[in-house]
Amino acid sequence: MINVLCKALSFLAIIILGYCLKKRGIFKDGFREAVTFIALNLTLPAAILSSFVSFQKDNSLFALMLMGLLVNFFMLFVGFIFSAGKERNVKVLYMLNCPGYNIGSFCMPFIQGFLGAQGVVATCMFDTGNALMTCGGSYAVASACLGSGSGKFSFGDFIKKMFCSVPFDTYIIAILLAVFNIKVPEALGNFISTTASANGFMAMLMLGLSLDFNIDKKYYGEISRMLFIKYLISAALAGLIYFVLPFDTMIKHVLTIVVFSPTSALVPAFTEKLGANTEASAFAGSVSIVISIIIMVALVTIVNP
């Protein structure tokens, strides 16, 4: 357990390092964008493909795609119910921040580091369904319920956002390769595994550089209530998954961790399109990262005794 805890705390240390270096002004303009580009377009796709090399087709894993979609719809409904009667800005905050999981750049390194390739495959399956909501599905529903604000939902834009995402495209390619039993060439596999090994560091550094806690204090109360509800419901979902659903132990461990992922990084952009407060949304996302770190460090320590 000590080794597991040390590894989990090392992830936390990298995030803190990135945040401190940003606050000290050591990194030049554009550095965060460069780190983000490398993490999302190189190391994360490599980690996904590397994990699928030894994938054995299991139909139960494909149910995780549907589950990723359904969990998002449920959390969207939770946001709608608990924001009833509140002003529009608050409704947008709840409806966009309760659903939508930041799995690729946040949760995946934890799964990769502690649950191995099989855990990453299960996470990818769940995130494929999750991506349908984070890339525009939640925004479309919120827009229909609350009015379009300053932007209109475009199905073409929704499809474009999904398939212009390198991690999402990699999910699709990896799943197709596995379904048709197409093996990755050994030379390419060696390159992929080397790049994949850097994913944990790059993803955690990117998160540290992305943290932002500057906001008007008047939003503290509402954001605190929204996050309390989000994580309370997540805990209930984790209990349901672990003690009721008929998955094997590995998948239960993965899903229990995944439902505590922080808010998607795309939420502030969709908040702006709805004409709501983007600073409050970005702040909520940063706080959710801190909360999720604490919970995930505890969970990976528990599931890796």
Describe what this molecule looks like in 3D:
- The chain has helices spanning 2-23, 31-52, 59-82, 88-97, 103-114, 116-146, 155-163, 166-179, 186-196, 199-210, 220-243, 249-258, 267-273, 278-303.
- The chain is mainly α.
The helix tally amounts to 14
Secondary-structure element pattern, one letter each: HHHHHHHHHHHHHH
Strand content: under 5%
How many separate domains make up the residues? 1
Overall average pLDDT: 82
Q: Which term fits the overall shape?
A: globular
The profile of the biggest β sheet is: none
Distance between the termini: 5 Å
Output the CATH topology.
Answer: Na+/H+ antiporter like fold
TL;DR of this structure?
This protein has about 300 residues and is an all-alpha fold. The protein contains 14 helices and no strands.
Secondary structure layout plus pairing:
Layout: H1 2-23, H2 31-52, H3 59-82, H4 88-97, H5 103-114, H6 116-146, H7 155-163, H8 166-179, H9 186-196, H10 199-210, H11 220-243, H12 249-258, H13 267-273, H14 278-303
Helix pairs in contact: 1-10, 1-14, 2-5, 2-6, 2-8, 2-9, 2-10, 3-4, 3-6, 3-11, 4-6, 4-11, 5-6, 5-10, 6-7, 6-8, 6-12, 11-12, 13-14
Task: Give keywords.
305 residues, mainly alpha, Na+/H+ antiporter like fold, globular
